[in-house]
Design the sequence.
């Protein structure tokens, strides 16, 4: 019985010890990626909803009536499902 408990604790200990090890990440891409051309997409695109200074949607506008505080559509309303 003592040998069985020793063997089980050894297996359990080795199992937990190997579960905690992490494999170092190796990079397969050796060239750094840089973006040389900037797009003017951010200058021409309008925000989806009018926001307050603190980043929450302004509820005075019709488009923002059914948005949550983080700006995502509220799923309680039929048109957002």
Sequence:
């Amino acid at each position: 019985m003592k040998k069985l408990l020793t063997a089980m604790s050894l297996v359990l200990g080795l199992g937990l010890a190997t579960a905690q090890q992490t494999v170092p990440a190796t990079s397969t891409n050796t060239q750094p990626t840089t973006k040389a051309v900037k797009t003017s997409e951010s200058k021409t695109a309008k925000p989806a909803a009018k926001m307050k200074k603190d980043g929450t949607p302004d509820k005075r506008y019709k488009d923002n009536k059914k948005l949550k505080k983080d700006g995502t559509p509220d799923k309680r309303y039929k048109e957002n499902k």
